[in-house]
Amino acid sequence: MPDDTDCPSGQTILQMVKTLEDPLAETGFTYQQETFMRPLLEQFGLKQWNDFAESWNHLGVDRYMADGGRYRRRRYATYSLTQDEILRKPHQPHYQSRDYNTLNGGIERWFKPVTAATGHHPALLAILKLTHRIASDLTPAEQRPHAWHAEVHQFRIEASPDSAGQPTPEGLHRDGVDWVCVLMVSRENIASGETTIHDLNRKTVGSFTLTHPLDTAFVNDSRVYHGVTPVKPVDASRPAHRDVLVVTLRHQ
Description:
Layout: H1 13-27, E1 29-32, H2 34-43, H3 49-54, E2 60-61, E3 72-81, E4 86-88, H4 116-119, H5 122-138, E5 148-159, E6 179-188, E7 190-192, E8 194-198, E9 204-209, E10 216-220, E11 225-228, E12 231-233, E13 240-251
Antiparallel strand pairs: 1-10, 2-3, 3-4, 3-5, 5-13, 6-10, 6-13, 7-12, 8-9, 8-11
Helix pairs in contact: 1-5
Organism: Acetobacter tropicalis
GO molecular function: dioxygenase activity
Protein name: 2OG-Fe dioxygenase family protein
């Protein structure tokens, strides 16, 4: 983990991390734009971003969509995160109960694995380190696991003039984990894609749109629901997609 040195912004790493942690602890979510996130993630090892983002051009079609859609592409990987180590686990299926995913839950879903190069890329490792730091800081010591189970999802949502892309086809939801990080990779020729945050009574408590690469949201999954509005092409004659990285952490 990085020392608490000054970032290019003039703030220390501790101060910048607290800027994320304080609202997350208070409201159950936080959101920061690229201008804040890039210098912070660089202190955790972020580099070669363009190479990392390019890997979203090589995802596989999600063939488990119960709505019959073919608008989602993805790759998937799991890790064990400790204070001292990031260890990739053998490839395994993704599973959510129907309590959390009424559309696609209740079955094991085998997605193409995140490639070896992407899975060990310094950009991904930096994001995992920061997410681990935040989860560990905000979890009471008596509840904090020695190792967190992390799931990494590369998502591309495609939109066409005839069919909007659904970033959250299951609707307003929780993921059945402890912590969620959603990081924008690319928006190409799309409109909308607004994220809304709701309390446990489903009352709206916040909204924002991940617009620029590295715009990032963190969510306490036990405290709030989240959803994203459908995306549509701006120019019907050109390809349109929304690329995001989702990282979730839960107790082993």
